[in-house]
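Now for a typical sample entry:
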Amino acid sequence: MKEILSDKIHEECGVFGVYRRGDDLDVVSTAYYALYALQHRGQESCGMAVNDDGVFYKRRELGLVNEVFTKEVLENMPRGNMCIGHCRYATTGTPVRSNAQPFVIRHVKGPMALAHNGNLTNAAELREEFELMGGIFHSTSDTEVIAYTITRERLTAPSIEKAVENAMPKLKGAYSLVVMSPRKLIAARDPHGFRPLCLGKIGDSDVVASESCAILAAGGEFVRDIEPGEIVCIDENGVHSIRAHCQKDTSLCVFEFVYIARPDSVVDGASVHRARRRAGALLALEHPVQADVVIGVPDSGLDAALGYSQQSGIPYGIGFLKNKYIGRTFIQPSQKLRENTVRIKLNPIADTVRGKRVVLVDDSIVRGTTSRQIVQLLREAGATEVHFLSSAPEFLYPCYFGVDVDSRENLIAANHSLEEMREILGVDSLGFLSVDGVKKIAEGCKLGLCTGCFTGQYPEQPPAAPHKSKFEKKISESAD
């Protein structure tokens, strides 16, 4: 499968966990609804691990949530008292079944299930260390490296939560984790807080999730965000926290607000919908344009376009119809079809743009290929002018903390001037939100923001070289 909008960054992963407390809550159905709500964060694979009185049952496969967890599959899964779930896009690890999550590990201290959102920067070094000690890996995912690290600490630690606490200093980079032992559900977030993680309630039961929208979709209520560096332990005695690794310097990925998170989520105190509208408003102040209509590229460009319209006074219009029956991934069987995939997913509404000067707002411009095709669609629909504005700054540097951009080679802004980009995209004008502007979009956010992909200044030392190919070459060849 390929990304139909190949110009886009890839979403991330979504994690969820539920601990049932004496009520009639169905943990499998709860996780199913939550994963549905987190589907935007990963559409390559998904899975669940159920704890049925200390016995672990897992199912993980390539595909969307409704494809993997059919009615028959759900009916045959044990009810259990705990469940963790995951939906995945590969930031490290190829899209094969062995990389699907959650991982279930069985060791001398008992079983453990693990789901992970993020990207370790020292995964290659840790994996090599384990392999030299005789460790055998079944995947190319850095999640398995995390599982090994926690398991090693569990051999000497008095509890699973202490093992997670001891493992965290050895893990570098971004990680929001959900860990399940026979009797406990653990949630942990890296000290920078690169990726979101929150706590909720469904009746008397406790849940954790990547985003608040998943808690609400499962019928629960949001309680609070899990702090960067915090470990939350949920067991029969309730919910308690370990804050030994909490620190003042935090760096939530700003792309959670620009693109990744669902607009109805609240991430670390800030509404995603409001942040995108504010991005559009700031864009209007920085890049005023004489135009007749403002439109957005579905989906994450729509809120920013609305904000631009409200700030500028230029009418807002629906410029594209998005095919609801195609996900963010789509099989493209030939080169000719690959060249026309945007037409399959997006269709311009000619009545909105015909004979008009159009402001086109998108969340970002990464490689530029899809953006160029979208502009061409508007030209063909009769737009007299197209002014392309991005609600994020120029994407100039790789991301090492979970967004799938590991090289500057294909980044259009890293290799071309603004005027060259304007010509490549075929637009009348081109503008990007400034770095100072994007830092202001998340009103109410309690954390600092990472903007390393725009500035090259990272909160943590990046790896000396990308490590993906080192562990993926053989498995990719066999998969082909």
About this structure: DSSP finds 19 helices and 25 strands in the chain. Residues 1-6, 328-333, 467-480 have pLDDT under 50 and may be disordered. The radius of gyration is 22 Å. Residues 98 and 139 are 5 Å apart (CA to CA).
